[in-house]
Amino acid sequence: MNGINAPEPQTNPSAKVRLLHRKTRPRVPLRQRMPAEKLKKGVFLIPSLFTAGNIMCGFFSIVSTFNGEYVQAVFFIILANVLDGIDGYAARLTNTTSQFGVELDSLADVVSFGVAPAILVYFWALVPWGNWGWLAACTYVVCGALRLARYNVQAKSAAKGHFVGLPIPAAAEMIAATVLIYYYLGGEGAANKHLTLLLVIYGLALLMVSGFHYLSVKSTDLRKRLPISALVFGLVLIKLAVLAPQVMFFTSFLLYTLSGPLLWCWTLLRRQRGKRGETAKALP
């Protein structure tokens, strides 16, 4: 009962209320608080359009091959290579490179530089070989896909001055150049094209998965000063390309295709000469 009748405690209105001090933290921008995946939900338009054009050219090349228009199929492969170079340049120029673009570009390369050239070669020259013909074309596609997968894995660690293995666009252009040179020389119906293309497509498949080093055109800086001889050499190449574009096209890609094994042989020869020189100096 004393507890019920006890007077209520009086509160002093002048007493100060102490509040807990709250530590204030600096404001973090929204871009840093949210994961990058939630911010980047779209795609970069300019390079993706060129890559989509690359895929379309590969598809049109396949359709042209089915229709028996082999020269037109070759030109679509060449156009796909041009678009493939433009999309990478546009992405680097506009600073819009992304992992999405890398994966899309690889898928486009499989279609335009793997499947399309393989179908072209099969219907143009490998049908008489039967099972060996489509196995050769299939081997080319598989090796091209392996080459692209290895490039994507080693893209960050590999040196920028060269490629490991023949790039699949160069392999496709080598096939296109071989078909064009046959038509230029009037030998599109020659019997030797069946054996030639069989050896070419197997050779390209092996070069793509090989360890040979090929020079990278992407690392070339055209803003540097070059000797006057480079200008003269470029003018000569342009004149030859105008006079005989098929021959110039075939010669250029043939030299690039063979540059990997030739560079390896030259390096091996220099090492052997260096060892012989060291041995000769060590002898009394």
Indicate the proportion of strand residues. under 5%
As a whole number of angstroms, the C-alpha radius of gyration is 31 Å
Q: What's the story with the biggest beta sheet?
A: 2 strands, antiparallel
In whole angstroms, how far apart are the ends?
Answer: 121 Å
Which topology does CATH recognise?
Answer: Four Helix Bundle (Hemerythrin (Met), subunit A)
Order of helices and strands: HHHHHHHEHHEHH
What is the typical, i.e. mean, pLDDT?
A: 79
Query: CATH class, please?
Result: Mainly Alpha
Low-confidence sequence ranges: none
Cα shape: globular
- Helical residue percent band: 55-70%
Give the spatial strand order of the biggest sheet: 1-2
Number of domains: 1
Q: Please state the structural category.
A: mainly alpha
Number of helices: 11
Looking at this structure, what is the CATH superfamily? CDP-alcohol phosphotransferase transmembrane (TM) domain
> Could you say what the CATH architecture is?
Up-down Bundle
Instruction: Give me the count of strands.
Output: 2
